[in-house]
Design goal:
Elements: E1 7-10, H1 14-27, E2 33-36, H2 39-48, E3 57-61, H3 69-77, E4 86-91, H4 96-108, E5 112-117, H5 122-134
Parallel strand pairs: 1-2, 1-3, 3-4, 4-5
Helix pairs in contact: 2-3
Length: 135
């Protein structure tokens, strides 16, 4: 399996950041992980990208302070960046309306938006990495 060039992890929970980053290291699906505590920090990172390669994958929490996951995707879409990116919306919600909204966002933007239920484990990471590197 080809590794992902870089992953962007956006979540306000330090435990989630620590555990997902550790799982990425263990699975070796990527050598580079950019971590942010809210959507604003991540947007600033994407705005400042010059000749650096953009991450191929974003793991995005929905409920965050300052800029939440929905607001992040709306703002990201206006940056005219990589449309080959896949955004996995990480949520602990099993509410069907969240899954429907993720599908609406997937139809709304040129990049892919997919739903990923927390907690994130090794098998889920390996599956999304395999899917991301085969598309």
């Amino acid at each position: 399996m080809r590794t992902i060039n870089a992953i962007c992890l956006i979540d306000d929970d330090p435990i989630t950041i620590f555990s997902v980053k550790k799982l990425i290291e263990i699975t070796q699906i990527s050598e580079t992980v950019h971590c942010f505590h809210n959507g604003h920090e991540a947007l600033e990172f994407f705005k400042s990208l010059e000749n650096e390669s953009e991450p191929e994958l974003i793991l995005l929490d929905l409920n965050m302070p300052i800029v939440d996951g929905w607001e992040f995707m709306d703002a990201y879409s206006k940056l005219n960046l990589n449309t080959n990116i896949v955004i996995y919306v990480m949520t602990s919600s099993i509410n069907p309306s969240d899954a429907r909204k993720v599908e609406q966002y997937n139809q709304k933007f040129p990049f892919q938006v997919k739903h990923l239920i927390k907690p994130i484990n090794k098998d889920k990471l390996l599956a999304l990495a395999k899917e991301s590197t085969t598309t």
